[in-house]
Amino acid sequence: MSTLVSPGITLAALQRTPLLDPVDQRILLCHALGITRTALITQPDRALTDEEAARVSALLQRRIDGEPVAYLVGKREFYGLDFTVGPGVLIPRPETELLVELALERLPPRARVLDMGTGSGAIAVAIAHARPDAQVTALDVSPAALAIAARNAALNGVSVRCLHSDWFTAVTDETFDIIVSNPPYIAAGDRHLSEGDLRFEPPGALTDHADGLSALRTIVAGAPAHLVPGGWLLMEHGYDQSVAVQALLAGQCYADVQSWHDLAGIARVTGGRAGHG
């Protein structure tokens, strides 16, 4: 059976062979060979053994077939931290860093924070890392996701309480200073679900299997009972959903309802404050 990479090829020659996006190819080469980017540059004449060539070929082929780089290497950087990821959780994305930044700007001292649908724990861990005084709770309905979130909290040396929960069920009588969420918001049948990395990510973390707003409705309706007076609810949503999410918040009498744009100029996060006591 033919392979993409022939035994004996040097690192320099391999990097001149454009099998993938150059950045993806470099990341996968380093991962397959267990070397740093510096080694990749400083050892141009290193020739691959038969076993190394087979390993590199297999990994590059999986990427050509569409598997996300983050799943292939088992990690992804988010908010300057390293996170373990796998097929059971959504891959953290740069645009979600906006949600973290907005939350950090609004945290009072010793804040109680709730991250709903935490997945890999990226949002919860990033907040806990930036604000060690905060008490951060992360919820998810998936035990597999919670295990990864707990692993990421330990990896980054932070304390996050991880609870198995169908939205608010595990925190019935608790209140928080801020609630954040990046829930499933892609509508059923959206063509993006069959494109790119999304084909390999867990459907339940991407789509509500409805109109894309059902999870957001549940959070908006339930959050007031779990927010202190004046506490913030901040939610990530789709590129075309800000008006609808603002309407949901206004309908539940949240104050200061507004949306914030990511670096691409897309209205990515919408939020409001619970009623004042």
TrEMBL record:
Reactions catalysed: L-glutaminyl-[peptide chain release factor] + S-adenosyl-L-methionine = N(5)-methyl-L-glutaminyl-[peptide chain release factor] + S-adenosyl-L-homocysteine + H(+)
NCBIfam families per UniProt: hemK_fam (TIGR00536), RF_mod_PrmC (TIGR03534)
Alphabetical UniProt keywords: Methyltransferase, S-adenosyl-L-methionine, Transferase
GO molecular function: nucleic acid binding; peptide chain release factor N(5)-glutamine methyltransferase activity
HAMAP family (UniProt xref): RF_methyltr_PrmC
E.C. number(s) listed in UniProt: 2.1.1.297
Protein name: Release factor glutamine methyltransferase
